[in-house]
Amino acid sequence: MCFLIKSDKMCSMNAIIEQLRKEENCRENLSKLRELVKTNERKAQCIQVEGYAELFAHFLDSEDAKTRKNAALLLGDLACQNQMNTLLAHYQNETTEFVKGAYLEALAKLDVTEILDQLMKLLEQLSDTEITVENRKHMEAQMRPLRSIQLKYQGKKVHRMVPHPKGKVILTCNREVREVLRRSITSGRATAHPLGVLVECEDLHQITANRLYRELLFPVSVKGLLEPDPDVVAEALWNADILGQLLELHGEEGPYSFRIELKSSMGLDKKSIFTKRMAGALERMSKGQLLNSTTDYEVEIRLVANKEGKLYPCMKLKTVPQHRFYYRKNSIAASIHPATAAVIMELAQPYMKEHAQIMDPFCGVGTMLIERHKKLPARQIYGTDIYGEAIEKARENAALAGVNINYIHRDFFDFKHEYLFDEMITNMPIRGKKTKEEMDTFYGQFFDKVSQHMAPGGVIIMYTNEEGFVKKQLRLHENMKLLDQYLMQEKNGFYLMIMEIRG
């Protein structure tokens, strides 16, 4: 067996082991050794520790409880498989509550196939134990690794939605475009909601095809907003029959795997403590029908804080079929969200022409152009971008969407074309590190270049957070006029601006 360690840490490592052999500063040295293992994983050099497992296991018999705990955790960190039965035996004989979880945490990192039945019986016994204020922390510390083992070896049940699920859902969006989304709902009763639009639907699948929302969430019917206390929130969700809601939507028994997403200004450390404690409470109350799994899960329990810090609970389900943006295999950091692009096309539709010749001068991965074509078929579509990686990704996205788009790896300001365009659609580059003066010059050059490529009566559909520069260029370019303007995101000043080239 081996673990990886930087060469400049070798002396420190050897010195620690030598002190452990002499049983000097055992608790501290075991802790230091754990830190060395954690911080030097996957490094270039590997030190053999054959035979050291027995040395570390020796400290499981220490009279000092923290030494026993550190030794158990170290054996798990090093995946000392030959100490599996030793760890289990010491867990069974341990009398100090705060140490017990360490043995199980170590076992969760080993292959425990041989003792799986014993561990699952232990989990059952712990689940039936009465939880008190005094024992809750230690009980959860034991049940958490056992739940992890249960998921690992018994697997997750794959759930699917019932054929025609009904009920209330929240379609999220920026509040500035909430009314646009609400008007687009043709099935079910739609009303404004702080997170977007609340829809009461008879068939969820009729809602999922809508392209204008960002996320689909299921509200949990609690009484009012919840105090930011993990036990209070867990109990409120359980009393609201969150498990029954999942059963109704899927028609299948659990267990359901979940994670908790806390949207609040709470610090990371506090969030971690909060979510861990709440997850343990839900697992305990559901007797394993709700299982916490932070990486592979079906249910995201989302808690959204208001300005006062109180929490609104809802769920995001991975089991909801989502095919709206199937083409969006690739993206880059500057890519526009496809739902935002879809909203832009919804608002701009009255100014579009069928079978138009269209161009996007800063196309990125092509989302704007694909959404434009889906809204109204185009005759010819062109996109340019200076980033070759973006162009390659755009071509793949377009192929998946089944749209014929001519993507060209070129700077728009060097672009030439034989024919004039009917529409110029673009998500303008953000300022980034450019100065105000540089951005002013950029917009001036852009409007000059656009004038060369647009047919009389052509339309510019622009998404930008530089309203001032656009208005300035419209004053300087008398051949252009503003047709319409929509505030898309007040916080960052993003607008949809629709302009026309005069004949």
3D shape: elongated
Distance between the termini: 78 Å
**Spatial order of the strands forming the largest sheet:** 4-5-3-6-10-9-7-8
Structural class: alpha/beta
Biggest sheet record: 8 strands, mixed
Strand content: 15-25%
Write the layout of secondary structure elements.
Blueprint: E1 2-4, H1 10-21, H2 26-39, E2 46-48, H3 52-58, H4 65-77, H5 84-93, H6 97-107, H7 116-127, H8 136-154, E3 167-172, H9 178-184, E4 189-193, E5 196-201, H10 205-208, E6 216-219, H11 230-239, H12 242-250, E7 256-263, H13 268-286, E8 290-292, E9 299-305, E10 311-317, H14 338-348, E11 357-360, H15 367-375, E12 380-385, H16 388-401, E13 406-409, E14 421-427, H17 436-453, E15 454-464, H18 467-476, E16 480-489, E17 494-501
Helix pairs in contact: 1-2, 2-4, 3-4, 4-6, 5-6, 6-8, 7-8, 8-13, 11-13, 14-15
